[in-house]
Every structure is written in structure tokens, then in C-alpha cells.
Amino acid sequence: MLAQPLQPALAALNRAPVHLWLPHPSLSHCVRAFVARSTLGIGRDWPESWHYNHFPASPLCAISWFMSGHAELIEDGWPARAGSPGRRLPRVYFSGPVTRPRVSRNSPEGHGLMLMLLPDAVQALTGLNAADWVNRFEPLPPSFGAEWHSLSHAVLAAPNDEARVALIEEFLSSRWQAARPPAPAPGLLRIQDWAHALAMRAASSGIGRSVRQAERRIKGWAGLPMRELRGLGRAERAFFRTLSLGDANVRWTDVAAESGYSDQSHLCRETRRVTGFAPDELRRRIAEDESFWIYRIWT
Following DSSP, what letter does each residue of 26-67 receive, concatenated? Predict the structure, then answer.
């Protein structure tokens, strides 16, 4: 389902076409979203700064495809000097959870698609341990098996993004129904909801139900400890709370209280850790800077 941005006026600031699809409800505990972006026909005329991409820390795994062009990961993060070296990413690559904000740079023209997956779903589908992939961006692992690699080739060959999303959902549908653990009713999962569901599942499964054993189970499924997941959940909640205000003045003390932070200083520290910027600066850059396009359309 093609998602409508929470702030259409903000999403309209993106100079390149960007689309976000939410998964079919039956896949909501597996897929968080699909995102596609294209600079074909327009990007060659852009200033260099518009070719950068800012992404926050995230517990999600992802498979990314470049139908055209390529991306480079800026290993040292931001600020990146003009012409600073980056590590060229494969045409198709897998990434695990990331614990710090990351910056990439696209070729002047390109067209890419990201499939964002919950890490416990990746483990259930492939056996991959997300903890082994924290902060890693590598070719699609051989351990995924031939069927996943065949899907990857089919995605690259599909005629358009809608067909790509349909291919992926069809591929995942029966596999996820066979592999999925017991879960509550389907529905869009924000990070806090997902982390809470993991905690409940960890507390009620396996032999031994001590806090330490539950923490080990959670890290085994998600790749990150519960404390990290809760911090990312608070940051996402604060982001959506701020986004809901549109152009209105923000009282950061209110956002902090409503998002689960102890105070405004706590909000500022964690926002900087997750995004690389203080809340006011992040809000300004989302409104003014093309490289923050993902924030503008996230829902």
C-alpha cells in the first residue's frame, strides 16, 4: 500500500521522486516499509550536497537494490568534505541494525529500492543472527540461499517499483506465514510496539525466565539489547510527535515528557546520538536540506 506522508507539504520539498509503501497487513510483523527514490533525468544538474543521504540509527535490517547508479558509504560520517572518499556499496546489499547515524553519497543519477525488515523476522526466515550484522553493509549473504538470490535478480529486472514491491510481497507471503512466531494481530509496528512485543515474547518463552535470560533472547532476535531498542523507540516517538506539529513552535520539554525522556537534556543527548544533530538543528535540516529526504516521507 502506497503510504501518504504525515506532512504532505514537507514531503513535497523532496526534489527527487520518493515513494514509501507499507506492507500488506499479513506481513506487518516482518516488513516495516519499502522505500524507492530516483534521481534519473534530474540529478546530473544538482550541486554535490544534494547527493548525500542522512539516515538515523535504526534496529531494522534492509536489503537495498540499485537499478541504476550506485551509493557510497561515508565511513567517517558527517560532515563529509567535498570529494571525501566513500566505500562503494554493491548493487544489491544487506545491512543489519545500525547503532549510529550514517551518511551515504549517491552517484549523480540513480534509482534505488530498500526493503526494510524487522531483524527477528530475518532470523526466522533465513537463520541469520542480526547481532553478527550490526553496522555492516555487505553483499546479500550466501546463507540466504538460492531463492533469495533469484528474487534479488528478479527485482532488478522488474519493469517498475510497483512490480518490485509486488514481487517481494508475493515471495515473502507464504514463507513468513510458515516461519513467523506467535504474534498479536497484524498492524503497523513502530519501534516501541515491536520492542514491547519482543519483551513479552522473551519473558514467556524458553526454559528459564530470569531477566538476564530474557535479555539474551531479545538480543538474539533483534541483534541489539533492550536498552538500545527502548532508546530508538523513544527517538522515533519524539520524531513523530514533532512531525505532528507541522510548522508550529515546538516546546521541547513537552516533547521530552510525552516521549518518555527524563527531561529535555535527555532528549537532546539521545537525538544527537541517534541522528547526529540536536533537535532544533535536525528539524531545520529536515525542512531545508535535500539529504534528509527519508525523514520527510517516513510514516
Answer: GGTTTEEEEEEEE-TTTGGGS-GGGGEEEE--BS-EEEEEEE
pLDDT tens, 49-93? 999 999 999 999 999 999 999 999 997 655 555 556 789 999 999
The string of pLDDT tens digits covering residues 211-241 is 778 788 888 889 999 999 999 999 999 999 9
- Contact between residue 125 and residue 179 where contact means Cβ atoms under 8 Å apart: yes
Answer for the pair 32, 118: CB distance below 8 angstroms, yes or no.
yes
Residue 3: inside a domain, yes or no? no
Provide the sign of the torsion angle of the four alpha carbons 81, 85, 87, 92, taken in this order.
positive
User: Is there a contact between 282 and 298 (Cβ–Cβ < 8 Å)?
Assistant: no
Domain holding 113, by residue range, is 8-184+288-297
Calpha distance 35→183 (Å, rounded): 25
